[in-house]
């Protein structure tokens, strides 16, 4: 079940060209990032975790900073994945808007 939910989140990420998947989704772990700088992704993670609605974990490989969504509870449902995606997307919108000239 968790693997299927991870693939559901992966599909949502792939539907938004601002994001990239860092590694093939195997098991219940989705590694992803906003296309752009490490600093942009660090800001996004701080915003997500600071908001307190979902919690993501960072990682770094070869100087590439990315975010990890771990789905490991047997109680996780599709609604939780949709909620997580809405949080990630909404806060990404905010972070990207703040980085635009004139803001």
TrEMBL record:
Q: Which GO terms describe its molecular function?
A: aromatic-L-amino-acid decarboxylase activity
Does the keyword Secreted belong to this entry? Answer: no
Q: Name one GO cellular component term.
A: cytoplasm
Give an example GO biological process. serotonin biosynthetic process
| Key words, A-Z | Decarboxylase, Lyase
Assembly description: Homodimer.
What protein name is recorded for this chain?
A: Uncharacterized protein
């Amino acid at each position: 079940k968790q693997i299927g939910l991870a693939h559901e989140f992966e599909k949502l990420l792939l539907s938004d060209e601002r994001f990239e998947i860092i590694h093939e989704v195997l098991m219940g772990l989705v590694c992803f990032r906003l296309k752009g700088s490490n600093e942009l992704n660090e800001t996004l993670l701080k915003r997500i975790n600071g908001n307190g609605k979902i919690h993501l974990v960072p990682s770094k490989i070869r100087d590439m900073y990315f975010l990890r969504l771990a789905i490991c509870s047997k109680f996780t449902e599709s609604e939780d994945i949709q909620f997580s995606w809405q949080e990630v997307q909404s806060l990404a919108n905010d972070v990207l808007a703040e980085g635009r000239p004139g803001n």
